[in-house]
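Quick one before lunch.
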Amino acid sequence: MTATLKYRRVLFVYPNYPGNHYGGENQFPPMGIGYLCEVLEGIGVETALVDMGKLWPLEYLFERIAEFRPDLVAISLMTFRYRHHYELIEAVKKRFPAIPVIGGGPHLTAWKTKVLEQCPSLDFGVSLEGEYPMKELCQGAEVGSIKGLIHRRGSDIVFNGERELVADLDQIPFPRYRSFDLSRYHSGVFLCSSRGCPYHCIFCQSKSMLGRKFRARSAGNIFEEIAYWYQLGYRHFNFVDDNFTLQKGRILELCSLLEKAGFDDLDFYVSGVRADRVDHELLVAMKRAGFTHLSFGVESASDEILKVLKKHETVEEIEAAVKTANELGFYVVLYFIVGSPHETLDDVRKSIAFAEKYASGGCNFGSLMPIPDTTLMEWVTEHGTLLMEPEHYLNDLAEYERVPYFDGPGMTLEEKKTALRITQETKERLEKRYRRRYRLDTFRNDLRGKGVAKAVIVQGVIAALEIPLVARLYNGRVKRLGQAVKKRLKL
Ligand code: B12
Ligand code: SF4
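Model of the cobalamin complex:
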């Protein structure tokens, strides 16, 4: 099988995103690359990863390339910091001119041929899902025939057209990260149980992620992935879907499979829940199955602003869902946006009051940033209200930088700054409240399940990690040791 391959050794690169909301260093392995490796390994391709989010110097990447001798370098790109990614690609090409470089991920999906125009060292690009284009490329298919692929023909840049989205996600193997050094990451697992989002919120680049069409894995298929990690000792899982509960029946079935399996100590976080897609029955089932943290995108506690954002939800619906989730004992994490068109300081105060009442798991207030290919970007461009060039904030600021990106209508600039300040204070206050409760709950549970000694050790470790100096060390070298100890003691 390997003999027929055009590319036998692929080295993946994941860029660094300093200033990201995870404190600068990547805590979880890049899942998109995990999916690609799984498919490629299935046809006999050898894979390797250099995650620059582990703060490796460029020299380390060069050493790994020289050592692994890939015949294709593949890099995953978000639009954030794209100029820095291009510099990285140029540097690789300069050092290893004979190795072709392919890019994929949200940035290629959003800008397609423009990326190859802006970055002459990129030989290929892939729009949308990468599994099948990568597989066909490595198998030596004629480049003009691979749907989803962008390539160079002489001085032209050719896009072969969008490939149909994978309809049956159960056909794609889940990532096992066999060529990754998992000991360098958090001891939890990211899971993606569905792809795509059918909504049209004006600020969101959903069409430039994995498509508008919602496609879901079956409950049995997700369960298999959880069971695989469970038998390896993993207990903490985080679903990163945009719309985890869009199909209620699927999640009820998953909860029932989990309950039947009788797994101990499971702890599930869900990053993307729409309040109008959960009800009491579903939340009860999720609680019993081991879900503990639910994140809701509230955006605003004002109906007028939700309409502006085209969120297609009402404050009443959102409140009903987060109230029930709190009553059932979930840690409820709420995400808000500050600075929407027409938002006033009073609207912001309503969002703060809402957070105070329901954000038992903490909250975040992001300054609304117009990103390319969104209705919001068209709107600010049309109205000429941008306060700085997108080029600047997309490359040199983090997504959660606390500055206004465009002017009015709604608040004056001064009011926007006040809004950003008071929401940040709220976030910090509620984060502390959450930590206190979390620590107490963990202590109580550990006392019940693991006994006094383990409960005290866990609390000692958590408390120590919150001392700033220790936290810094923990983020680096000491972290792996800590995780090994935790695994060994089954803490
Ligand atoms: C999970 C997630 C994270 C996780 C990363 C987890 C991980 N380690 O994998 C965390 C929370 C750390 C994160 C952080 C950030 N994220 Co994020 N994240 C997501 C989320 C919700 C899901 C991504 C995912 O795993 N999808 C499932 C996999 C299967 O899809 P995928 O990664 O897109 O990969 C597929 C294709 O894109 C393609 N592909 C990907 N890479 C490559 C490479 C090659 C060579 C090829 C051929 C194909 C290819 O093939 C893959 C398989 O089909 C998306 C939203 C979304 N729905 O996509 C946002 C999203 C990707 N994040 C985004 C952003 C902006 C960030 C941050 C920069 C925010 C910040 N300022 O802090 C940081 C970056 C920090 C970092 N270290 O990565 C944006 C990117 C927008 C853009 N156009 O650039 C998105 C789209 C959210 C949004 N709507 O704004 N994120
Ligand atoms: S914000 Fe959420 S619901 Fe709205 S389009 Fe984006 S992913 Fe979909």
